[in-house]
Amino acid sequence: MKKWLAILLIASCGVAARAADDHDRLDGRLDAARSVIDSIMSVPDKAIPDGIARHAKCIAVVPGVLKGAFIVGVEYGQGVVTCRTRHGWSAPVFIRLAGGSFGFQVGGQGTDLVLVATNDKGFQYLLHDKFKIGADASAAAGPVGRDAQASTDISMRAEMLTWSRSRGLFAGIDLNGATVSQNQEDTDVLYGGHHHFDAVLRGEVPPPPQAEGFLHAVREYFGEAKMHDHD
Length: 231
Description:
By secondary structure, the chain is an alpha+beta fold. The chain has helices spanning 2-41, 50-53, 120-125, 151-157, 184-191, 197-201, 212-222, and strands at 58-67, 75-85, 88-89, 93-99, 111-117, 130-132, 139-141, 160-166, 169-172, 179-182.
């Protein structure tokens, strides 16, 4: 009996340690996403234009996208998404982004990506299990500069706008062909149970404390609530 109790104790300690590691990993991802937003938006002449930021429906940040070491031209990253509701920005969910070569302007290692859904159709795509940028959701390279005049025309033509940052350069990027999929496993770990992306991104699930830094940065640079909810 004592032997079995010892085995159970060791097993439970192992499970607890893995759970702690998972939470630390996700906390790090949220913090990295916050850092990306702060770094990009704190330099006005190199930031996402205000006309886009203040009307964005959803923000996705994918810190440190890496090029596959053995498969040339393949990129992969883990990201964080929040969407605007009438009560403020939603609790975050996690996504995966993968695809062929994106043609990064200055190399591919450790490149940060930012995706902005500009309308409700772009928001709806984020509720899908998986979608392809360009084939399913129309996308365009986003303009840079808080006062960029072209921002309104571009946001009207595309459901998503995309940017990259690598080695200090922040610029619009063509992500056509990239696949965005829900990371339900990590999202469940963050909330300690299962929640559908639809419920989270519509603001029906309260954000966990560890997401506050990320959401604070989003509120600071992208504004607060919208006048009406997603219908």
